[in-house]
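Example record

One chain of 76 residues, shown exactly as stored in the release files.
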Amino acid sequence: MPLYEYICQSCGHPFEVLVRDGESPACEACGGTELEKQWSVPATHMAGRASSLPMSETPRGGPCGRGGCGMPECGP
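Predicted structure tokens for this chain:
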């Protein structure tokens, strides 16, 4: 069951949801079904050894505390 990030096109609410086979998610704030799937950065952690996987720093800042998520209110 993959975890996807969406933004509701009706109310602008960002949220994450586990999606099972055949399910169509709905906004947890307004119940809207017009959703835009967002790009996610996979989390990786390699303790004590080098990795060939690209690493990114944890985004900080913005009103949501995440920053860099692409939402206009969070900034670049």
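Notes: Residues 8 and 35 are 5 Å apart (CA to CA).
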